[in-house]
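Chain X:
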Amino acid sequence: MPDRLLEIDGISKRYGELIALQDMTFDVRAGELFGFVGSNGAGKTTTMRIVLGVLAADAGTVRWDGAPVTLGTRRLIGYMPEERGLYPKMKVGEQLAYLARLHGMTAAAARRSAETWTERLGIAGRRDDEVQKLSLGNQQRVQLAAALVHDPRILVLDEPFSGLDPVAVDVMSEVLREKAAEGVPVVFSSHQLDLVERLCDRVGIVRAGRMIARGSVDELRAGGAVRLVVDAPSAPDGWTAGVPGVRVLARNGSRTELELDEGADDQAVLKTALATGPVHEFARRLPSLTELFRTAVHEGPKAPESAGGAR
């Protein structure tokens, strides 16, 4: 088994008749950035709270390095909740040092770590301010500092980029890459799918409490529906009507974007386009993560999980 593997294995959770999670299963490997995406209410936050022990699962197990997670293990986790989890009237520096000491740091080490992370995240000048007096973006930076201040071995972050300006997003992204480079497994949820696509080694898409797709962004994109871009200046509207299994997604001037059903013949599309005149472009276009997400959430998965997405 790989070192320092965080495993979420068959987690289920119900609230009466409501199924919040059903057999939620995935892992986050050492040094990996794992993007956890889904619509509001899909089960992302519930999963994270079970990992933290804030909620108890009805079934399933959370393991770290092959053993069930315990209170001692949870002291190793840096957690950033989506909602504010800070003391609003406590000063930033004092609060971060206090949280570090709760995780076992000495007073001196806690103070140094608080100074380090407020410098790193651009809020050193606000150490003596109460959290409630900060902007929402700066509160988010303090929230991340609170997750990092005790030098965690695992990071679990719920919407860490919410409310951040572009500069802060860049700083946050760099920090997460650095922690992954140190061998820390990082799992974070986000609705900013362009960031997830850019940052993450693997992605899991959640729908109605179940993991419906999982793998690297390239694996997920390759498993999506085939899309073609055809630039045929002489082609009239409806030129694909005689080709079975082909849908027009968009047309912009002479360029037509198509989606092909499984088994549809792309060479038949090319032949039909050439019959109308010259073809300046004929290329496959891989769907973005946003497009994959929309398809998976609204229609369910079209392809099995990639072989690269272990449990």
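Chain Y:
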Amino acid sequence: MLVKMLHDQGLRSHHCFDAGLISVGLAIASWCTSMKAESHGVERADRWGIFVGEWAPTFFGLGLALSVYEKD
């Protein structure tokens, strides 16, 4: 089981929740940076923000799975 393996390796639910929050901040930062640093317009900035923003649900999902595993 993947969750058991991650838990045995030392990953805890709060690590994943922290990573999810950080990825939300990184999505906003990458969008703002892309808007200012590149001349390709809003479309490219949106793609960067969405790409990084898709990490958050993964981290939150892993956090929830680990949280349930830690309660057992």
